Amino acid sequence: MTAIVRAAHAKVNVFLRVLGRRDDGYHDIETLIVPISLHDRITVEPAEDLTVTVSGGAAAAVPGGDENLALRAARALATEAGGTSSRGARISIEKGIPVAAGLGGGSADAAATLLALDELWSVRAGRDALARIALAVGSDVPALLLGEPAYVRGRGEIVEPVLLQPTTWVLKPFDVGVSSTDAYGWWDAQPVTGPDPGALIAAAESGNDSLLGSALFNDLQAPVAGRYPDIASAIEAFLAAGAHGAVMSGSGPTVVALAPFASAPDLATAIPGAVVADAPPPPAPPARIGPDPSGVV
Predict the structure, then answer these.
(1) Which CATH number characterizes residue 87's domain?
(2) What's CA 144's distance to the chain center, in Å?
(3) φ, ψ for residue 72 (rounded to 5)?
(4) What's the pLDDT at 286?
(5) Which of 9, 50, 111, 241 has CB 3.0 to 4.6 Å from 35, enough for a Cys bridge?
(6) What is the pLDDT of residue 296?
(7) Which parts of the chain have pLDDT scores under 70?
(8) Three-state helix/strand/coil letters over the chain
(9) Is there a single domain that holds both residue 127 and residue 17?
């Protein structure tokens, strides 16, 4: 028996521009998504049925059943491969990413599950088919399936890789969760669209962290921070501690600060509960763990 192990990397939204609500209920957006070193660990193993188990500090907050994006992704791939009745797997998720934090943890799990099961089941669906399945699972899943920095448009279906310089981020999660449905609903009540992101993207591509930090923005930040004032307080604290810039990631409430590499640990120490993450994370091939007790095949 062989198990496939993959890292499911969290993401930060360097900017998030909301253009408006669509007729299908989704929103058209523009965003720059960057995977970071913070990650969950996904293990898939052969089994008769499709099941998901979750461990780790945030396990209790992870949705179960049809609300679990990894299970939804597995069922969608099984259907693509010829029916769920003939495809089984034991999916284990070891959580390292906070839940409902704006860091894409559930979407990252779904993306890693798709890639791992495509290999385990020898589906060989191809990137286009996997991206189509990913979009049906969640709007962030296609970008996280790519596994590298991406400029994302539409509701998440238009994903273009972007070559960025390495960056270091300090993350401040909170004990509350914010659903993306609520965040976008609050934006609908007072819709404000941010500036054209061309200069911001150019700064990220060239490695001008000072300019990039000053240009960070998120159209969802104002409506979410209006209900969770700790977000604004964390941003102010990061800036006072020497960050290039700070912004809420995704639908929040996590605040991410662009940090000078050398002072990132000091910045994290200055903000209680903050952690350091690198972007993009170093590439790591998936591990295949076989019956040999020596480990990786």
Answers:
(1) 3.30.230.10
(2) 6
(3) -60, -40
(4) 60
(5) 9
(6) 41
(7) 1, 83-86, 284-286, 290-297
(8) CCEEEEEEEEEEEEEEEEEEECCCCCEEEEEEEEEEEEEEEEEEEECCCEEEEEECCCHHHCCCHHHCHHHHHHHHHHHHCCCHHHCCEEEEEECCCCCCCCCCHHHHHHHHHHHHHHHHCCCCCCHHHHHHHHHHHCCCHHHHHHCCCEEEEECCCEEEECCCCCEEEEEECCCCCCCHHHHHHHHHHCCCCCCCCHHHHHHHHHCCHHHHHHHCEECCHHHHHCCCCHHHHHHHHHHHHCCCEEEECCCCCCEEEEECHHHHHHHHHHCCCCEEEEECCCCCCCEEECCCCCCEC
(9) yes
Residue 104 backbone dihedrals phi, psi, to 5 degrees? 75, 30
- List the structure tokens of 141: 């899943």
87 and 173 belong to one structural domain: no
Domain boundary among 143, 162, 181: 162
Q: What is the dihedral of CA 145, 150, 219, 256, to 10 degrees?
A: 80
CATH number of the domain within which 188 lies: 3.30.70.890
**Final residue of a structural domain among 140, 162, 184:** 162
Residue 84 pLDDT: 58
What per-residue confidence (pLDDT) applies to 69?
A: 96
Per-residue pLDDT, 292: 46
Is the residue at 37 inside a domain?
A: yes
**Which strands sit side by side in the sheet containing 275-279, from one edge to the other?**
245-248, 255-259, 167-172, 275-279
How many percent of the chain have pLDDT more than 90? 85
In a domain, 127, yes or no: yes
Task: Give yes or no: residues 198 and 158 share one domain.
Answer: no
pLDDT tens readout for residues 84-138: 556 899 999 999 999 999 999 999 999 999 999 999 999 988 899 999 999 999 9
pTM score, whole prediction: 0.93
Catalytic residue IDs: 11, 140
